[in-house]
Structures are given as C-alpha cells and as structure tokens.
Design brief:
CATH architecture of chain B: 3-Layer(aba) Sandwich
Structural class of chain C: mainly alpha
Strand content of chain C: under 5%
CATH superfamily of chain B: P-loop containing nucleotide triphosphate hydrolases
Oligomer: heterotrimer
Structural class of chain B: alpha/beta
Low-confidence stretches of chain B: none
CATH topology of chain B: Rossmann fold
Radius of gyration of chain B: 19 Å
Number of helices of chain C: 10
Largest sheet of chain C: none
Shape of chain B: globular
Strand order of the largest sheet of chain B: 6-7-8-3-9-10
Number of helices of chain B: 12
Mean pLDDT of chain C: 83
Chains: A alpha/beta, B alpha/beta, C mainly alpha
Number of strands of chain B: 10
Mean pLDDT of chain B: 89
Distance between the termini of chain B: 45 Å
Helix content of chain B: 40-55%
C-alpha cells in the first residue's frame, strides 16, 4: 500500500493581471515510491504547480496537503518539518548557487537550518562523495565549476537533509547531452538508494521516461492525461499528448541494443 | 564548385584557439548538420561563413561561399553575400527583430536591402512571405509588432526573411532550441520543405543529435574547436569511429526517448 | 579584484585626488603651519610667500592652514552624509523590496516623490529649525542621498531576492534574516559600494555648496565652502585667492567620482559572473565587423 505524500485537489492559480489562469482545476497525487513526471511545455503551468507543491506560492483556489496536513504557511515547527521532507532542484545551474558562497557552505546551509543536530560540514562532504565530486570542491566557489558540476552540487544540497520528496524542475535541460546522461544516472541511483520519491517537471520525454513511474501531461494550465509513464507515452489518448509525442525528434532505431555499457568520460 | 567550402579555418580569441583547423563542405542541395556541445566552436564556425567574428579575434584559413572568399573580404562583398546568397536564422528571434518595427517591415527588409523589392509591392510581398511560412491571418499579422507574436511565430518570420531572397545556402544556428517541442517540430518541417523546394544547401548548427539525425544528410561533429568526425547519421550511429562520437551517441540514446515499437522493431 | 582596480589608471588618480585632502585633514589634526583662528590684522591680505604659502585673508590668517583644517570638516561632513544616506537608504530599500506588492508600491512612489524634493530646501528647513551646523548640513545631504540609494537598491534587492538560489535557500529552511545576511547583502554589496562612492562625490559638492551658503559648519571653524564665501569679495582685486579652495573642492569631487568609476569597472566582472544565468550557454553574439585574415 502506498503512502500518500502530496494531494492537490481543485488547485487553480490566477496571477493578477493575467488574462488566463496559470492553473485550472488541477488534481494531483504523489505516492511514496512512485516517481511522478509532470510533462508540459512552456506556459503549461507545470512550474507553477511545482511552486505550489513546494509551498512557495499560494493557489487562488483549491487545497494542497502533504501527508494529510495542509501545507504550513507561516514559519513554524511544521514549516521546518515540511521543508526537511520536501526539497527542490531547479533548472538553471548557473543561478541556483549563491555565487559568493563556497560549495561546502551551500550544501551545509539547509542542514544547519533543518537538521541542527547533525554535523553539517561532515554531511556536506558525504554528499559531495554521493554526487561523485571530489572533496576539495567544498572550498571552491560556484563560478569555478562547470554546469554539470553545479547541478550536482544543487542535488547534493537538496538531498543533504535526507528529504522524502525532491521536486526537480527541468533538472538537466540546461546541461550538455553527455553531462545529462551522467546526472540522470546519478538521480536514478540516489532515488533508489535514499528511499526518495522524485517529482520531475519537464518537457523532455526522455528524462521523464528515464526517471518516473507515473506521469501527468499538462497544457494551458490543465491536466489532460495521466497514468503510468509507459501508458501515457506509448498509448496516449488526448490529442495534445499525441501531438507532443509525435513532435519529438527521434533518433533512428539503434542497431545494437547496448544500454548497459556506457562509455564514461 | 561546392556551395560552401571551409578550409583550414582557425579562429583565435585573445590568443586562445577556439576553432582549430576546421574544414568542411556543403554541396548544392545538401543538408549538413554541425553538432557539438557548448564550447565546441560550432557557432563561431558558422558565423565565419557570414564573415562575422567576435571582437578581438583573429581568423585564418579560407571560407568560400559560392566561390566567393569571405576571409579578408571587404564590407561590400560581404554585404552582397549576407542575406542574399546566404540566408540565416538564429536562436533568439526576440533579439533579432527590432521591437519598434512592425512585422511587414521586417519581412521585406532583406529584399529591400538587396534591391530585390519592386516598388509599391512591399505590403503584398510581406503578406505573401508570411503566408509562405504558414502564419495565420497574414494580412493582419504583418501589421503587428514582434512582441505580439509567439516565439514560434517570430521564428517563422525569421525563416521567411531568410528564404525571401532565395539564398543558395541557409545557415541556421540553433533555430529551434528556444522553442517548445511541438513548435520545434513544425518549424523544422517548414525549414526542411522550403529548403528542399528551393534546392538550397543548408548548414544546421545544433547540440541535439536527434534533430541533426532527422534533418541532415551528413553530420559534422565538433569538440573543443576541432572536427572529430564526419558521416551520415546512420554511419555515426552504427559505426562511430571516434570515442567522443560514440559517447555523444550513447548519451543521446540514454537521455532520449524512443517509442517501444521502434525499440522492439530493432531487437526483433 | 584589487589588482584589476590597480590596473585602472583613473582609479589611481582618483585615489590620489581623494588622498590629498584626506591627508590634509589628518595632518591638520596634529599640526598646521599657523593657527588658522589666530587673528593677526597686521598681516592682512599678504600675497603668497614662503611664510604663507597661499597668503593671508582679511584677518591675517594663513590661508594654507585654513584650508588644511577646513579639510577636516569637509571630509567629515561628506563621510557623515554618505553614512546617513546608506544607513537610512539601505533599510528603506530592504523594507520596500521585502514588502507586499501594495505596500512596496506605495513605498516606491514615496521614494520617487522624496527624490524630487530639493535637498537645498530641506537644508533650509533644517537650518531654520536647528541652526547651521555640520550635523544639520550632513543630515540634509544624507537624507537626500538616502532616497537615491534606496531608489537604486530596490531593483537590485528585488532581483537578488528573485534569484533561484534565494528561492532554494528559502526552501532549505533559511529565514528572512539569514537570506538577507548570507545571500542578499553579499551579492548586492558591490552595487552598494559603487553607489556609495559615487554619492561621496555628490555629497562633497553638496556640502561645499551648503557651506558656501552658510548652512554648514558655522564660523569660526574653517570649511572650504565657507572659505570660498569669505574670500569671494576679493574676486575683482585678487582672484587668485579663490583658486585654492576651488581646486581643493574640485579635487575631492572628481577624486570620488573617479574612484566610483574604477570601483565599478573592477567589480563589474565579478558582478557579471555573479549575475550570469544563461549567459554562458547562449551562443556567442559576434560583432559584425570586416573580417581580416
């Protein structure tokens, strides 16, 4: 039996001054262990939904609960508890890290705030190892790192407090293809290892297919399709989903199926 | 005479070599893809075709377009080349279009610049061009301003502008990277149709292997300023000759998505 | 960063131009050739000589000594005004940036209106109520500068507050104070520093102006602006006496301005790296130029 983590019902979001709502009548459920993919293009409302789930944005209508309780609004013990359980990774590796803070402190910061009884600097070093970065990176500043390395630091920071859920908004879209493959493998490994549930927001079907078990498809603020990832991608019913899938430029079928061995740089 | 003949192109910025001895060709009607990750030098190479180079850079080698050398060419020769023999489409349409001018002014600008616009035909030509790229409600759309159009529509305007002078070579630098997937598919299809109908050659610069594989007859792979490998999409995918290309292909398949029917068809 | 600053010739000049009055002020604390307040009517209006480098004024007082001591109040007032400007302006900017949309809008408009209010009128009002003094003129200039600082810093702060890394810190459990202290201040400090240095230049000129009008340090304490006012009656007879205080004021004003420019250029590359988001991943935008082989 799956534990319900997130439950959003009837969520709508209209920003002041906008002609059409960013979200309309969104119902989503995230269960423990079932990685969810939120598929959509720009303007679909997928990022808005992510922000609402994270409690960074209040919906204009509807309700969101986490483990049955409404998302805490003010700074309180409940709020800290929620932040400890739900973490986030964002798209832009160049803007996700404070340019004036050394990497080690960046990773340690949430630990100090949310797990005060832990040794934050030691945990930061552990996390660096987990994301396959050498320990001396802890002293460096973000600008000395490549995009892929920065994104790994962002992942390390998100996982440092040992959350239950990580919401990742386009986690690899800003990265070069070869780096993407590495980070994707890393996320898969960490998700399995840490008993983590991942929510991936992306337009990239390959990433969703690679990480998620369930998926919802969004366009213009509404959910138009949902189900297991394989069902949604292989047997789409909604015309938008069909169009989306048909639009993806495909590589020709690979003659030698060799997914197990990857040449590692 | 090859349409585009780049020989031993080397570009240095502040003493650093960013494009190293690059040679490639594009034949008439041939669609060539230039693929590479960030820092590969692919954009710089394509810009050299137009005689454009960054500030404080030195350029060596030869770049011939339809027999005309661009390296060391004077401004007049380059002007005749740009927009007429070579049409170009860039990644960010919002910075390429002057926000103060309505669309119809943009559409006819290349024709006007090369003296190819008959008197009094400006508005009609603009509408015709807009229709040629599938822009809906062309007559009223051309009166609007760039910010009123969507990203995909703006890119179509760029394509119309690029193709309006019936160029012999179409240069496209990451033309769909900033667009949504559904829009990308339509824009790529449009480019492909227009190019094949006009018999122009094209050089498509991209980081997306799937896009290159589906749009190009031949792919050139660049890394750190050098050409690593050249071949047809099938050749590169089934028999990559260099380790870098093999890694690139592996990564593309690892992060890309394929419908099961394709995967199963192969292993069957 | 310091090396980058040193490579900027104008910055060095600025440093020197500011250093001279600063040195003068510091030196005059312990020593001046003559007592600038000593009344010596016998030595009235002496021309420049080895004994009196700049000559004497109507009361026989050594002009050089007057200028040296005057540097004290000028520099003090300038620094004080700027300190008030930052001390009031920065919290004001932070409040505006952190406030809700409506309150923030009201505050912004308030700041805009306050900027339009002439500092001179404010100075007059304060002087009328509290009498002329260094504190009053500094306060007037400081308040005028505060709203300018606030105006510049509000978008800067808003921009930083909207950055992904601040959002992520919030999601990481960091409170408002932590965000301001660890994330916002370090990243907006360069802009603040540059603006403050530019403000020093404006404050120096404003201070000289107010002193000239008699709103600054009252007599007998020397100040450059008032010295200019005192000597101006001589403009037709011996115009050269006006040169020294004018040059002194100009040195300070231009010096701070150059320092501000050099600081901006030195910190800009840092800022560029700090602010860069997609900058690195975008394709290079070549400048259309004639290609040379």
């Amino acid at each position: 039996m799956s534990i319900e983590l997130f439950a959003a019902t009837g969520v709508g979001m209209t920003y002041p001054g906008m002609s059409r709502p960013a979200l309309t009548d969104v119902d989503v459920r995230v269960d423990a262990g079932r990685h969810l993919g939120i598929i959509g293009e720009s303007g679909s409302g997928k990022s808005t939904l992510a922000r609402i789930l994270l409690g960074l944005q209040q919906p204009t209508t509807g309700a969101v609960t986490y483990r049955g309780a409404p998302l805490p609004r003010t700074r309180s013990r409940e709020a800290r508890d929620f932040r400890r359980r739900v973490q986030v990774v964002l798209q832009d590796p160049f803007a996700s890290l404070n340019p004036r803070m050394p990497v080690g402190k960046i990773i340690a910061e949430p630990v100090k705030a949310l797990r005060p009884q832990w040794d934050a600097s030691r945990r930061a070093l552990e996390m660096l190892a987990d994301v396959e970065l050498p320990p001396d990176v802890a002293q460096r500043l973000p600008r000395e790192l490549s995009g892929g390395q920065r994104q790994r630091v962002a992942i390390a920071r998100a996982l440092a407090v040992r959350p239950e859920v990580v919401i990742a908004d386009e986690p690899v879209s800003a990265l070069d293809v070869s780096v993407r493959a590495h980070v994707l493998r890393l996320l898969r490994r960490l998700a399995a290892h840490e008993e983590l549930t991942i929510v991936v927001v992306s337009h990239d079907l390959g990433i969703i297919d690679g990480l998620c078990t369930d998926a919802i498809v969004m366009t213009e603020g509404r959910i138009v399709e949902r189900g297991a990832v394989s069902d949604v991608l292989e047997n789409p019913t909604h015309p938008y989903t069909r169009e989306l899938i048909a639009s993806v430029p495909l590589l020709p079928p690979r003659p030698t199926q060799d997914e197990g061995t990857h040449h590692v740089a | 005479m090859t349409l585009l003949d780049i020989r031993n192109l080397t570009i240095r910025i502040d003493g650093r070599t960013v494009v190293d001895d690059v040679s490639l060709t594009v034949g008439h009607g041939e669609r060539v893809g230039l693929i590479g990750e960030s820092g590969s030098g692919k954009s710089l190479t394509s810009m050299a075709v137009l005689g454009l180079r960054p500030a404080r850079s030195e350029l060596f080698g030869s770049v011939r377009v339809a027999g005309i050398e661009t390296v060391g060419a004077d401004a007049a020769a380059l002007r005749a080349l740009r927009g007429k023999t070579v049409g170009c489409i860039f990644q960010e349409p919002q910075s390429a279009l002057d926000p103060l001018l309505p669309i119809h002014r943009h559409l006819v600008a290349p024709l006007r610049a090369h003296g190819m616009l008959p008197r009094g035909a400006a508005r009609a030509t603009a509408i015709r061009l807009a229709e040629s790229v599938g822009l809906p409600d062309a007559a009223s759309l051309v009166r609007r301003y760039p910010h009123e159009l969507s990203g995909g529509q703006r890119q179509r305007v760029m394509i119309a502008m690029a193709m309006s002078t019936t160029p012999r070579l179409l240069l496209a630098d990451e033309p769909t990277t900033a667009l949504d997937v559904t829009v990308q598919a339509r824009v790529l299809q449009l480019m492909s149709d227009l190019v094949s109908r006009s018999g122009a050659g094209s050089l498509l610069v991209t980081h997306d292997m799937a896009v290159a594989a589906s749009q190009c007859d031949r792919i050139v792979v660049m890394q750190s300023g050098r050409i690593v490998e050249t071949g047809t999409p099938d050749e590169l995918i089934s028999h990559p000759r260099t380790r870098y290309t093999a890694e690139l292909i592996d990564a593309a398949y690892a992060t890309g998505w394929q419908p099961r029917r394709m995967r199963e068809a192969v292993s069957a | 960063m310091i090396s980058r600053f040193l490579r900027h010739p104008l910055g060095i000049i600025g440093l020197v131009l500011v250093g001279i009055p600063a040195l003068a002020a510091l030196t005059s604390l312990v020593w001046t050739p003559y007592d600038p307040l000593a009344f010596a009517p016998a030595d009235r209006w002496l021309p420049p000589s080895p004994e009196h480098l700049l000559g004497t004024d109507a009361g026989g007082r050594d002009l050089f000594s007057i200028l040296l001591v005057g540097a004290q109040s000028t520099m003090l007032a300038t620094l004080l005004a700027t300190a008030i400007a930052v001390g009031v302006g920065l919290p004001l900017a932070m409040t505006t940036a952190l406030a809700s949309r409506r309150i923030g809008l009201v505050l912004e408009r308030g700041i805009d209106v306050a900027i339009a209010f002439p500092t001179l009128v404010l100075a007059i009002i304060l002087v009328t109520s509290y009498g002329a003094s260094l504190w009053v003129s500094s306060l007037a200039i400081g308040l005028g500068g505060a709203v300018v600082i606030a105006r510049t810093m509000v978008p800067e702060l808003r921009g930083t507050l909207a950055s992904p890394y601040v959002t992520l810190a919030t999601a990481g459990g960091v409170g408002v104070l932590g965000i301001l202290w660890r994330h916002v201040l370090p990243n907006t400090a360069p802009t603040l520093l540059i603006r403050a240095t530019q403000l020093l230049s404006v404050a120096a000129l404003a201070e000289a102006g107010l002193s000239y009008l008699g709103f600054g340090t009252p007599p007998p304490t020397p100040s450059w602006g008032r010295t200019l006012a005192d000597l101006q009656s001589q403009v037709l007879v011996r115009p050269e006496v006006l040169i020294a205080p004018s040059v002194a004021i100009t040195m300070l004003v231009i010096g701070f301005a150059l320092l501000g420019d050099a600081l901006r250029d030195a910190l800009e590359p840092d800022q560029a790296a700090a602010a860069s988001t997609r900058a690195r991943r975008l394709t290079i935008r070549p400048t259309p130029e004639t290609v040379t082989a």
